[in-house]
Structure prediction request, 439 residues.
Amino acid sequence: MRAPPKKPNSTRPLLLQNIGQLLTLRSTSGNSGPRRAGDLKQLGIIEDGAILCVGGKIVSVGDTREALRDSWIKKNRSQIVEIDCGGRVVLPGFVDSHTHPAFVSPRLVDFEERTAGATYEEIAEAGGGIRSSVEGVRASNKAQLAGKVLVALQEMMAHGTTTVEAKSGYGLSLDSELKSLEAIQLAAAQWPGTVVPTLLGAHVVPTDFKNQPQKYVDLICEQMIPQASKRKLARFVDVFCDRGAFSEQDTLKIFAAARKNGLAVRAHISQLARTPLAKLLAMNPVSLDHLDHVDETDVSQLAQSSTVATLVPGANYFLGLKHFPPARNLIDAGVAVALATDFNPGSSPIASMPFVLSLASTQMGMSPAEAISAATINAACALQIQEKKGSIEPGKDADIAIYKVRDYREISYWAASNRCELVLAGGMAVTSRQDESRR
Ligand code: NIG
Ligand code: FE
Prediction:
């Protein structure tokens, strides 16, 4: 493949041509919402495809012969930076709509204890788990934490991810949650992709509030949310609503505070034990995530709603669970399903979306095509950015991943390999396998 210059002039138009399979993910129904049921299989593939990008946006999408005959392209050819994709597969950059990158150290003790049979909840009760990541974050300054976030973002991009939702959640005090969001903002400014920040002050009750958990909920509602909103440090508020974390009642209270402060809401739900979804769905969360323990009522209520169900099978895999979220039931019932890594130090130190797609197929019965839709356009819907991200269509951001494969199914087939060869974010070539200095 002929690589573009390392720092192409962003003002120069860019033409990708000779694309073996161009997965456009364009809408066939004309509706801009998430894909459901059979529509998840529609990837809008163009063979021998071409994409023209100008000013960081996609301006036209078609086949290579058409593109080379286009009068504007012919006239401006000398100005255009061309990338010959040599028959490779090209798709929209992945949208990783659920990650927790604002932590300092891996949790190797938890990891090792699980090999001796301890469960995630037992480890958390014994002093490991989320609370054991707090000290490191509280002791770090913003720049140190931003450095950690940036390394995670770069790792994600090396696998083809161009948009990342990034949560706070290991500070668990007003200062350290705001510091985590500032670190995310600082890392985002140094990363060519797009970051969507989320306040997850409601991850668990910190040890210092152990005997007065309601005071911690009040701190979230009265201080963290208003300040994060006022300083534009977060676009969403998330809650870990589950056994050992926050109750349904706490979650509704936190959601109400978020809405009052102009922030949209999402939740970690039914990962460890079932919470009926009806009351939460009434608050119109943009996404409900995990959903390991849902019943038929939950599934049909989700299907009737506009809420996206974000599945994170990397967490089930890494915790060594046999049980995975019921993706097939959800999709067949018409739920809008998305996929994300849940990158975090406890349950999913996984930065690779292709690996998550592989798990979706091997462990949850999703076809390779369904998994790609779930990880691009539906994940964009889970962040309310589908007008700009998640498909290769005129007017959208030129966020594009090129894989060294001939068939899109290989992206998840080569389970633990990285076949991502080149990534464009906003029309700029930002990472490639030839560029070893970034790895
Ligand atoms: O999504 N479930 C809650 N939060 C994370 C785990 C975070 C951690 O263990 O550090 C999750 O799996
Ligand atoms: Fe999570």
